[in-house]
Fold:
Amino acid sequence: MATAALLRGATPGRGGPAWRWRLRAAPRCRLAHSSCSPGGDPTAGAAWACFRLDGRTLLRVRGPDAAPFLLGLLTNELPLPSPAAAGAPPAARAGYAHFLNVQGRTLYDVILYGLQEHSEVSGFLLECDSSVQGALQKHLALYRIRRKVTVEPHPELRVWAVLPSSPEACGAASLQERAGAAAILIRDPRTARMGWRLLTQDEGPALVPGGRLGDLWDYHQHRYLQGVPEGVRDLPPGVALPLESNLAFMNGVSFTKGCYIGQELTARTHHMGVIRKRLFPVRFLDPLPTSGITPGATVLTASGQTVGKFRAGQGNVGLALLWSEKIKGPLHIRASEGAQVALAASVPDWWPMVSK
Structure:
């Protein structure tokens, strides 16, 4: 039976989004239209929580060769902007992908936003971990060679995540995708559980109907509960393997596109059909030691058998790279202070039913 089928429902309190955001008031909204509060002030009730992601930043890649240049480096197809109808703003497109090294291990995770520079040339914004913006820029420069491509930071826009403040607050279709010079609002391409992405020069809550400023702690708690890795803490450069990091589940890899750096191992693993380890969301069941849990700490079964390693987390939730067939029983970590901390792994209910 599929591992996912065996494990769903095994851990109380998991699966659905972690609602109950801590919210603050925001001005009236301008960017999108909402059906959540018909005929009333959209700020009367918080329909959406907006989280400013200072740990994420943008690089702009543009030029006549931008598309073929990126295709040779990324695991996925490019989100090419759709032609807009006469008089309408250009349609927004976004995609998720990883840059790999030649051994097929993840270097950088990015969300790509397709831009229509003019009638025939497309440009792209690459959202990445702000701590590796310079390293990613150097990585792109290494492979640019003679291509007509410009790579530069794009500090004009800030990155926001937008999540519904409760399951009943608003349907996913209540926001309208938009792409413009001052703001881009688009669904998160990884999974519907991660809501929307907003790139703007302004304060995010001011642009979203019923928007309130959310606490960043809540965003990361929600992300870990959904099993979504983001940035170099969750995906250490040169260490993480893309398929073990659930790249295929998050719409981040194409197995039919042309060649790219690191493709060989990824394609071979996919066609073998066996992925024995994955990043799973975990929840700690015991109080944590004052020093926390060290990244890379070994996860053990009750009998002391190694199941995998803790990757990263926040508070009592996080991610761990675990053997899929060994996560059903009691698990624990021996913390640095000698304490034994129990934890439980879960399978997000948005994952497909698989037997890998």
